[in-house]
């Protein structure tokens, strides 16, 4: 069975999606993205550092050597695959561009309501234990406050967004709830990193082809703590 190249290469354009052995026949080139015509994306430009040793990468990809991205400190023990560095480099550039903007949260965490006291809280706690400021609806939305208005504020005051893709989120996306509105805003800003947990990119593409075409991280072959460590390094300015 053909494997989707999104977790490794990303599908930053309809042409890239059409070239994917798993997605090309399904989407028939650009036609599969006709419902998202209001958004345009371009391939980011960046360079890959030289290899710093062997090892098995995490984030849902295997094979290839472990490398150190330019934002990773000299004493860091976090291992990245070349695919993860390609995926995260454009987001690092966004973080650096917004480094001088005052009072920004480091990360906006988008998640399914059902995950608020489970996987989403685990990810939130892992990030905050590393000194990362996270916008998290469970603590940042007060009772009686309009949720969508607070979400808009949270998005505007965060450097990047991450979406925790779980079976619960897939169910919410099918129902077109609040999570869908958060994702639409993040996708429009081109600042969203999917973190797939307890499900697959294939299942995500069935529900949201555009989100499923984004490169991201995965807990399939690593722990949530390792993913949090990569996000923490990504958004930390030394």
Structural summary, described in words:
This protein has 238 residues and is of the alpha/beta class. The protein has a single domain (54-235), classed as Rossmann fold, CATH 3.40.50. Helices cover 41% and strands 10% of the residues. The chain contains twelve helices and five strands. It has helices at residues 6-9, 14-19, 24-27, 82-97, 119-128, 137-140, 147-156, 167-174, 178-189, 201-207, 209-212, 224-235, and strands at 105-110, 134-135, 158-165, 192-196, 217-218. It has a five-stranded parallel sheet with strand order 2-1-3-4-5. Helix 5 (119-128) crosses helix 12. The chain is globular, with a radius of gyration of 17 Å.
- The secondary structure category is alpha/beta
Please compute the radius of gyration using only Cα atoms.
17 Å
Indicate the percent of residues in helices: 40-55%
Termini gap: 44 Å
Order of helices and strands: HHHHEHEHHEHHEHHEH
What's the name of the CATH homologous superfamily?
Toll/interleukin-1 receptor homology (TIR) domain
Question: In total, how many beta strands?
Answer: 5
How are the strands ordered across the major sheet? 2-1-3-4-5
Mean pLDDT: 76
Low-confidence blocks of residues? 26-63
At the first level of CATH, the class is Alpha Beta
Strand content: 5-15%
Number of domains: 1
Q: What is the tally of helical segments?
A: 12
